[in-house]
């Protein structure tokens, strides 16, 4: 099966520290526009899929940075809140979906919903009710960034090595009238919005993915208060502000205490 996919034109994503990355065949980071990486908190369990929690900050625009650690091209299906970031359609992370291609050891940054060959609308953290997925009344995978990795089919069988060295379908526009989320707690949940338009060129290439994903990575992003409530992060209770004896706002001298 030969699938038409998109090869992202890399714009010089700088290599940096990989603290906060997840994945083996590829490494995934979530980076805000201010340059900070979202901290990851691994989920315990025996699942073959890689799962982590991440702390989202409301209003921040962000990008999904993926580095290929293999010595062969890979296709990556990326879904945000359960929607394929190229087509905008509900994703099941299958190998017949639209995907981005990374060359061996290459890195790409994916910053928004693709609306054309040279345009995206930016990702930003918002409430679930304001998210792109909510515009389609789809809360089935809210708050999850998912990456499925498909190596390219090769007609010979070289060993797959992991790098250990140094480190055109337009999207449907979301409805103006958002449908109410089923949960009364939707305002407390995190989602990804359909933000401002930006220039982001790609070109179409031929690529034949393997039938099964080599790796799947899931990042569940939440507000800090939600992570605290779930016990994912240890949060201290806010201590009362200490009284300052030289910063009294009463304004007038109080009567002396009676002896």
From TrEMBL:
Which domain of life does the protein's organism represent? Bacteria
Q: Region labeled Disordered — which residues?
A: 167-196
The UniProt keywords, alphabetically, are: Signal
Report if keyword Signal is assigned: yes
Signal peptide boundaries: 1-19
Report what the protein is called. Answer: Uncharacterized protein
């Amino acid at each position: 099966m030969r699938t038409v996919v998109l090869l992202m034109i890399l714009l010089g994503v700088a290599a940096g520290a990989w603290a906060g990355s997840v994945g083996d065949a590829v490494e995934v980071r979530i980076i805000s526009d201010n340059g900070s990486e979202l901290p990851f908190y691994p989920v315990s369990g025996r699942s073959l899929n890689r799962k982590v929690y991440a702390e989202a900050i409301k209003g921040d625009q962000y990008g999904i940075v993926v580095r290929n650690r293999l010595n062969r091209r890979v296709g990556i299906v990326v879904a945000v809140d359960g929607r394929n970031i190229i087509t905008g359609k509900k994703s099941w992370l299958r190998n017949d979906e639209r995907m981005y291609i990374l060359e061996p050891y290459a890195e790409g940054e994916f910053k928004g919903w693709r609306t054309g060959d040279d345009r995206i609308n930016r990702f930003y953290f918002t409430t679930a009710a304001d998210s792109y997925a909510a515009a389609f009344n789809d809360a089935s995978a809210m708050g999850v960034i998912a990456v499925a990795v498909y190596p390219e089919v090769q007609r010979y069988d070289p060993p797959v090595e992991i790098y250990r060295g140094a480190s055109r379908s337009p999207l449907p526009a979301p409805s103006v009238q958002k449908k109410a989320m089923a949960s009364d707690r939707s305002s407390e949940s995190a989602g990804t919005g359909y933000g401002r338009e930006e220039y982001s060129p790609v070109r179409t290439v031929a690529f034949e993915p393997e039938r099964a994903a080599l790796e799947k990575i899931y990042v569940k992003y939440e507000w800090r208060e939600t992570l605290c409530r779930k016990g994912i992060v240890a949060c201290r209770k806010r201590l009362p502000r200490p009284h300052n004896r030289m910063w009294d706002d009463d304004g007038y001298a109080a009567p002396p205490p009676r002896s």
